[in-house]
Structure formats: structure tokens, C-alpha cells
Amino acid sequence: MSTSLFTPLAAANLTSMTVQYDWKSGSHKLSASREWPADRSFASYGAEFTAQDILTSDSHVIGTQEVTELFAQHGLTDYLDQVLELVAQGRHHGLKIFFHSEKDIRFICHQHSLLRGLRNKRQATLAGGIRRHEPSEPELEVIIDGLNLGRAMTFKNIAADLDFGGCKTTVQMPELDLNDMESLGFLAYCIDRSRTMTGPDMNFPTAMSDIINNHFSAQFTNGPSSPLGESGTPTAYGTYLALKEAVRFREGTASLDGKSVAVMGLGAVGWHLAELLAQEDVALFLADMRPEHISRFKKEHPNAAVEAVSADEVLFLDVDVICPAAVGGIISEDIIDRLNAKYIFGPANNQLRASSEDEEIRLAELLEKRGILFQTEWWYNTAGVMCGAEEYINGASASREKLYERIEATIPQKTRANLIEAQERGITPTENAYRTCHNLIYGDQ
Ligand code: PHE
Fold first, then answer.
1. Which of 361, 363, 281, 377 shows the shortest CA–CA distance to 322?
2. DSSP 8-class letter at 281
3. What are the tens digits of pLDDT across the range 324-345?
4. Distance from residue 198's CA to the centre of ligand 1 (Å)
5. What is the pLDDT of residue 443?
6. How far is CA 389 from CA 203, 208, 403, in A?
7. Residue 444: which pLDDT band, with cuts at 50, 70 and 90?
8. Ligand 1 in contact with 385 (CB < 6 A)?
9. Are 293 and 308 in contact (CB under 8 A)?
10. 388 lines ligand 1 (CB under 6 A)
């Protein structure tokens, strides 16, 4: 494996590691431990043991000093420092790390802030999706992605008015086999240990939630058997409402009639967004790596004006709106000059290629200078987590009506208020959204 936090853990026969950062004092604490024996079977998690149990009589814990020495022995001092620096930069709470050595599953829960979930009376103090990365991906990139998304989740939960802190979980492992109860049990165990509730994010199948909830744990949401259906549908709807509000803010009417809109990615969210847009008099440009998805969309919407475009050209089209609906990090400094759209509003997370808040704010300013209306997505792509929370809190009696009421009551109003406030303050909507949340989390500004 390439440069990895898991190398020293594997060599020292350890299963777990915690990185904890205190942004008030600027100091961190580390611990690493052996918490279960190599032959521990996680397929029986929940039936034979719980997340509270001691799993071996041979447990072993090392503290900050020894962890630092262990990393030094493996020539990984600089790497560890780099990770600690990233955690500090985002003022994160830290990382919860678990390692399944036999299956080589590398689990990291990137925890940003617990604060808002501390008194919510639930097992999960945090909320954030779980996404899979290939084992071959460079770990530092996975960590950067996880930290950025975890940080955004804190703010997203505030925007959604939910009593949870924010985190994101990344897992480096091969594609999940839904019959592999060992891996599913392990993921359930790790999520429970991280005190987060979650829902499948990129590269994990939604079916994992149903299996895990039936067999192991109850911290997963948004599976096929959810009374609310898949979360992509409400997420698309919330984004659509936010876009209309942005158009109303700038043009005085929320109608999209006559506009051209490009949707980047026809996945679980993008597909539904394109469907909502197709109901209006809109010229749609669709990009997806899988051309058959676009053909299917055209077939199912024969009256819509749809044109397929390549992933390379979609960002630079001369259209009114661009809706990023797949991977993040697509708007980097060097492409901003070449954009032609008037609005960028889409459901994708982390649309700006930035690894700190300052960088995000700077890129948002560049977009504004180009006359593009952009508002950080975590302020409005909140319906997915609202859907997860409605199910997590109310279980089988989760209500679709309540969810949609919440979406309609929250997203347009918050978007409008943020756009107006930003204009009054002479700052970008992105910076204004951060300012609004900062006070709650850090007590500053
Ligand atoms: N993954 C969702 C997002 O990125 C959030 C979510 C968290 C959904 C927890 C369900 C459960 O917005």
C-alpha cells in the first residue's frame, strides 16, 4: 500500500486509532489501540457482541508520544504531520480510524464538530454520509475529501436545522459484496463506534442500509425499504427550489422558462433534477459518463428538449445554468475564466476545488467577479440529510409529507435570506453562509 496511516497500525498489530484536535488550544492528542483479535468475526456483530464490549483480554493502548514514535519508525512523521495540519486547518474534532486487517478495510470517520449533537438525546451525535474509495487511491486525497465533506456536513446540518454535528466517513475497500456479512458487520460496528448516523454516499449501494439495519445496527438510513424512498429525489427537489429562488433573486421571477440548463451527472440525484427541469420550458444539456443513461432519459421524456454533451465541454457551454450533480472539486481557479453560465446551482458536494474555507471564499469571489451567481452548496443541498434524519428519528413512521414540508419551509427561505444578506454586506453568498454558521460553532464573528 502507498503512504498510509494504516501501515504502522498493520505493522504493530493495532486495530484502531483516534486523532483528536482541540481548535481552542491548537493542540492534538493521538491514541492507537488493539481492540480485537485478528480472528474476531464481525458477521456476528450485534448478536454476539456490541460496540460497547471489550473484545479481547489482550487489549493494548498507546498514547500521543508512542503513536508519534511508531509513525517515525515507519518514516511517516511528515505524513502524520500533514494529516494533523489538515485537521487543524479545518478546525476539525478529529478522525476515528478502524482497520480490518484480513479484508484490508480502511475506515476513517472524519469528524468535524460534535457540538450541535451533544444534547440531542440520540446515539448518533453526528450525521454524515459514508462513501467508498478504491484501495489504490492515494490516501491523502481521500482524507482531504473526507475532511472537506465532513466540515461541510457540520454547516449543512445547521442549514437543515438538524441537531447533529457533522462528519463524513470514507472507506477504502474493494466494491462491497452485499452477501459479505463480515464486511457489512464491520462497517456497522465502525459506524456505531463513531457515533454517527449515516446514509450511503458515493460508491456504496443503498441496499447496504437495509441489510445493515436488519442484521446489525440502526444507524443507517436511506435504503430501498425506507418509507421515504431514496434520498436522491428530495435532494434534487431541494436543489431545484434553491435554483428557482436564485433566479427570483436576480430576475424577479422564479420561472425557468426559456432558460438553458446543463446537468452534470445523471446519477441518483442528477436524474431527478433533470426530470424536474424537464417539466419547465427549459433547454436541457445532459452530461454523463454512461451515454445509455442519457438515451434512456430522452426516451422517457420525449417532449423535453434534451441534448447530450460530453463531460469535457459541459462546464464551458454557453448556458444560463450549470448544475453540478456528480463528483466535487470541478470548479478550480483556472477554469473560472472560461465559464459562461450565469448561475451555478447543483446538488453535488464540494463543487469548488478548495481544501479550506478561505480558499472556497476566494474562489467564490472569483465567480462573483465573473457575474456568476453561486452559493456554497451545503447551504441548500440539505434535503438528503433531512431525509436521513426524518428516517433516523421516526423509523417506520417517517413521514414523506413532513419531509417535503421541511424542505419547502427551509431551503427557499434560507437561500433567499442568504442572497439578500450577502448583497447587503457586500460579500459573496458563500462567505455569508459561513459567517452565519461560524457564530454557532466557533462563537466568533
Ligand atoms: N450524504 C448526504 C449529503 O452529502 C447526507 C446524509 C447524511 C444523508 C446522513 C443521509 C444520512 O448531503
1. 377
2. S
3. 998 888 999 999 999 999 999 9
4. 6
5. 85
6. 21, 17, 9
7. low
8. yes
9. no
10. yes
Q: How far is the CA of 201 from the centre of ligand 1 (A)?
A: 7
- Residue 183 exposed, middle or buried by CB count within 10 Å (0-12, 13-18, 19+): buried
Distance (Å) from CA 164 to ligand 1 centroid: 12
Which residues are 19's β-sheet partners?
A: 30, 95
pLDDT of residue 143 exceeding 90, the answer is: yes
Smallest CA-to-CA distance from 428 within 335, 344, 327 is with 344
Indicate if ligand 1 lies below 6 Å from the C-beta of 222.
yes
Contacts of 93 (CB under 8 A, 6+ apart): 20, 21, 111, 112, 113, 114, 165
Q: What is the average pLDDT across 103-119?
A: 97
With beta carbons less than 8 A apart as the criterion, state whether 193 and 226 touch: no
Average pLDDT over residues 363-380: 98
CA of 19 to the centre of ligand 1 (A): 23
DSSP letter string over 357-383? Answer: HHHHHHHHHHHHHTT-EE--GGGT--H
